[in-house]
Amino acid sequence: MPSIDVCYSPELLHLYDLKGKAVVAVDILRATSTMVTAFAHGATDIFPVMKLEECQAFAERGCLIAAERDGIKAEGFDLGNSPFAYMNGNVQGKAIAITTTNGTRAIHLSMEAEEIVIGSFLNLQAVTNHLLDLQLDVLVVCAGWKGKFNLEDTLYAGALVERLQHAFSFENDATLASLYLYQTAKQDLVTFLRQSSHVRRLENLEIHKDTEFCLQHDVYSTLPVWKNDRLVDIAAKRELA
Amino acid sequence: MPSIDVCYSPELLHLYDLKGKAVVAVDILRATSTMVTAFAHGATDIFPVMKLEECQAFAERGCLIAAERDGIKAEGFDLGNSPFAYMNGNVQGKAIAITTTNGTRAIHLSMEAEEIVIGSFLNLQAVTNHLLDLQLDVLVVCAGWKGKFNLEDTLYAGALVERLQHAFSFENDATLASLYLYQTAKQDLVTFLRQSSHVRRLENLEIHKDTEFCLQHDVYSTLPVWKNDRLVDIAAKRELA
C-alpha cells in the first residue's frame, strides 16, 4: 500500500525524500485554485514563475501574463490571481505565465519528485483518482504563508487524505492532524476559515467571493501536471485522445 | 494585549522574531516532561546538551548525567529519559546534564528570546500563570520529531492557548489549529495520541506508562526557566524566598 504524507511548508521540504513520489502542490488561496480554473476554461499551458520581470518576459512568447502583489493585480499585467478573472473566455487556447510567491515556490522546490500535480478543492476528485491510478507514495506540499503553516492548505490535505485513507497508509502526525482538522471543519469550511489569518487578510481586500469559490469541492475535472518546463492539463489531453 | 503564536518545528524558527518574546520550549515525549519532573523532585540545575560526549564531560563537574538513544538509557550514564527514573530521591539537590536531540535543539535555537520557559502538561498551569504575569508576546516552540510536525507538542500548545485565550491575541493559523486539535482530543488524550507516529514508536518500546504520565495536566508547580547557561526552577526559588 503506498503512503501519504503532508509537508506543511516549503521550508520543511528538505526533510522529505521526493524521489519516486507524487507531489501534490497546494496553494488554495489562490494560486493553485486559479491555475485549475484557468485550465478548466481552456488555458493550454501555465508557466509558474517567481518574479515579476521573469513573468513579463513571457509576454514576448505570446503568453498572457498574470501577477498579483498584496492581493491585487500588478500593474502592466493581463490578469491577477482571482479565479473569476479566468472565466470569461479570455484564456481559451492561451498559454499563461503566472507569478505567485508561495505557490510557485512549492512547485519549484518539488522538482525531484516523479510527478507534480496541482491540487485544489475545485479538482479534488480528479486528483484523488489520479493518485489512486499512479500508486506512488504521495507527499502533499502546502505552500503555506511566507513559509509558515496555514489552515486552508492543511484542510485541503485533510480532504485528500479522507478520500484516499483506505488505499494509502499514513503513519505520520502531519497527515493525521490534517485529517482531524478537515473532519472538524468540513461541515462549514467558509465559517471555519473565517477565523484564519490569511482569509482575514483576503477579506480585508473584499474578496470573500474568491474564498467561497476556492473552497468548493469537485467543480472541475482538470488535472494540471508538471511536464518539462510547464504545467499542462492531462485531463484535457485524455479527452482529446 | 500580548500575542501567542506556535512554531511547529525548530526548522521554522528562523521565520520568527524572538526578540522581546517569551518562548515556551516543548518536547512532551519526553525531554521537557522529564525536566519538569526532575525539578519537582529536587534537581537544582539542568544543563540540556546535544551530544553524548558533551554530556559525559559534566560528570567531572559533579553532575548526574542523563542520556537516551533510541528510547533507552545510553550506556555509561546515570539516568535515561523516563520521568519515572527521577522520582526516587536520587536527583534531590543534584545538578543534571541531559542530552536529548529534539528538545535541546528547540531550547538552543531560542536563545534570542527574552525568556525561555520549559513547558509540559505536568506544569501547564504554572507556565500559564507565569505567562500571564510576564505580559510578553509568547511563542510556543514545538521540538517536533527530527524537524517534522508532531501531535503531542501541538496538543500541548493547544492546551496552553486554551488557558491563555482570553488574555492573549492569536491571529495566526498554527495557534488556531493547535487549539482546534486540543479541543478535539482533550477528552481522551491518551487514546487520541495512540494513533500518532511517535507514540507508536514509544509503545513499541513498552513505555505506555511514560506516555500516560506525560499527558497528565497540572501535576507539578515547577517552572524551569533558562538562566545564563542552564535551566533553574524559579518556582522553587520563590518558595524558598
TrEMBL record, chains A, B:
The keyword Magnesium applies. It is an enzyme of class 3 (hydrolase). SUPFAM superfamilies: ComB-like. Gene3D superfamilies: ComB-like. Its EC number is 3.1.3.71. Keywords: Hydrolase, Magnesium. It catalyses: (2R)-O-phospho-3-sulfolactate + H2O = (2R)-3-sulfolactate + phosphate. Belongs to the ComB family. This is Probable 2-phosphosulfolactate phosphatase. It comes from Pontibacter cellulosilyticus. The gene is comB.
